[in-house]
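User: Teach me something about this protein's shape.
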Amino acid sequence: MTTSGPVVALCAASTNEVWFSQAASTEIQYVQFLAPVTYIQGYLGSFAALSMTCDAQRVVMAGTDSNMAGWVFPFATGSVWGGTDAFFAPTYRDNDTTAFLTVFTAGTETWVGRAQGFGSAALLGSTDGGWSADASVQFAGVDRYESGWGQTNGNFWVATSSAGQNFALRHFDRGTWTNFTAPAPGDLNAVTGTPSGEVWAVGQSGLVLRVVGNAAPVRLDAGAGLGWYGVYAASATDVFLAGGDATHGRVARWNGTGFDLTPVGTSALQSIHGTSATDVWAGDSTGGLWHLSP
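Assistant: First, the predicted structure itself:
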């Protein structure tokens, strides 16, 4: 399936429902594989979704609007777009930012990462629809929270960037930050984890990091010269990286000991997500949607 514009955010809520959005577009879309509806488009004013997280009950989108304010939109999955029952919880607008770049969950918590704009960069958390920037969670000197992943309440990982510095992968564990500086130059684009707690982060110039237990991140080689923009972990032996270069899309699949590299289309993949190792979706830089299925 082909849409228009790079698919920068993508989330598979179930085997029957996939949500996605394009860069610099106010068009939020989802595909339902339940007859008779197969494809629906919706518009939320000037809101552009830059990140999504989802499960079988809801999808939460974070991004920005034409007034350079950050927004969070939660929706119930399976909703008819535009219906009054579509919103899962109250929306949130933040006037102190240029954008929310990432949204992720950690247990029952939902977190959004705010870029530096009219105010400072910050992480805002919510457990009940209300949003706040807890001072104990903030990390000084950060310009952008690029991506995040968490497994339990008060325990999560974020990829950050700051002007004039390399990226950093940071771990927050119940009030304490641990900072892992870059083992090599580059920018981190995405971070995720496996159900067993392994952490994966990917970025430019072939950058792939793996964290097992309490050890420091280890850099792995998944293809020289390739940029990686998304990562989805179904298990410790099924981790999917999405990326490529100017003329080729690539998926690198970690099998537990190494990567299997697969060409996908003719443009770099920008996002990836799935419900299992046999149900994985990826979006490319020209609006193409790709599906791995049995």
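Now, about its shape. The CA atoms of residues 97 and 117 lie 5 Å apart. The chain is about 0% helix and 55% strand. If you'd like, I can walk through any region in more detail.
User: That's plenty for now, thanks!
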